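Re: that chain you flagged

S.,

Sorry for the slow reply, it's been a week of failed gels. I finally had a moment to sit down with the sequence you sent. For the record, here it is as I used it:
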Amino acid sequence: MARRGTSSGRGVTICRLAVVLACVGAIGCGSGSDRAGPDEAVGRTIAIGVEAAATTVYPPLSAAALDFELGGAVFPGLNFGVWEAGALTYPMGHPSALARSWELDGARLTYHLDTSRRWSDGAPIRAADVQFTFDLLADTTLALPLASVAARIDSITAPDDSTAVFHFASAYPGMLFDTGVGLLPSHVLAAVDRSGFMGGLPVPDGAAPSDIPVSGPFRIGEWRPEDRIVLTRNENASAPARLERVVIRVIPDEATRAAELAAGSLHAARFNSFRLARRAGADGARLLAVPQRGYDYIAWNGAAHPALASVEVRQALSLGIDRDALIEALDLTGFAEPAWGPYGSLFDRLRAPPPHEPLFDPPTARALLDASGWVDADGDGVRERDDRELAIELAVPSGNDRREDAAEIIQSQLADLGVRLTIRPTEFNALFGQLLAGRYEAALMGWQVGLDPDISGFWGDPAAPLNVVELDDPDVRAAIEAALGETDGRAAEPHWRSVGERVAAAYPYAFLWYFDLPLAVASDLRGVEVDAGGWGAGLGSWSLDSTDP
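Prediction finished late last night. Pasting the structure tokens below so you have them in one place:
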């Protein structure tokens, strides 16, 4: 696995809900047909190949994976989270934070803005920008993916231009996390009709994206998100980027990204295929990884298939999956570890032991199915009960080689238990819609993991959109309420551990594996730091050998 320990995250621009959407939305789109120009491979410009388009670089509007990587490089937030020893810390005066200090007093959080910071057009960054940004998030007519960060905020007051006071309904551990969304310039964007903020990159009439003032090391140079985004150096930043330009190219085909990286047309490339990532490493690229920021799972929908309403059947199916064999067969060794609950080793203090060991236990799985009345009475190799076969349809996103290959292996493993698994490949966005609507029997999907331990959006309310299996467990809810009732993150940890333990024991998913997110970078690219926070936060420090002082 990638080395873990102290790391500097991209701050708290990634909300727990948006991170979820970021991962599942990372699917190829856009043409990516243009080759890099000659200036994109030399000098002070680099090109990065990604699989999926960004939807915005305005942090409050973020929804897709690339949105969160790039947003902090253009619009940083009031604070900056540093991942250290399994938790986020928020150092005062961090150079990437727009506030010089903060004070917590019960349900009140006061930020003192750094008065030396300016927007790129010279205007001061003010408390009004804080109010404007979080007013957008709280606007229920916009229904923004990050709206949950404003759910507990009663109001924001501004005693003066450099002081912003958040008043929460009650104190809870995530107050710093939820107030770290990147700020937008109210003096320019307040002129945009509010309905324009439902997504994309809204600008005032007559303006272009490149006209929008920013506060990070980069400005928006060119905005063609289905094809490419160009970021240019913000000369007026407190710490300007070392590179003149960064060209983000959307290249959905991973093999093409690998070929262009090898040819020098790209300086960095994101991969979902671990085989191609290894190949890029063998071709001379440095192989880095964002540790444990995603996990794959099979969701069991008891509302759509009566057998899956039984925890014993769900446990049997989970025990019938050999995760170690899957990791080896899919060439995930070194990038993934078996999962049995919602917390992996990234949150080592929160990860409880498996509810049953060993994780792969076919004899126990068969005994559980027998005891549940699912037996192979006619000897055809498929169990049945009340004249119904134990046949389950497994939806899997088409075009995702890892998940499609995994589905075929799992199909064979569960057949050994007497379960007939039918694989239904489905276009990603359609499948995600079906997942949210509950129109599936079983689905092999994945979530990206937020750096806040709060997983209430997945498991608290059975009607919540992301509780896709409609888990309704009063013990889980009680543990969540206890966690959210603490004012200190460390005090909340035992409760989150209890949440994870209880969720795992309910077997709502077959948790499969936690995996790292590979990034391959050219050997002449310097200053690249990849950690639990991603790669975008440090983009301003990247440089080429030819631009090093």
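What I noticed first: The CA atoms of residues 91 and 249 lie 34 Å apart.

Talk soon,
D.
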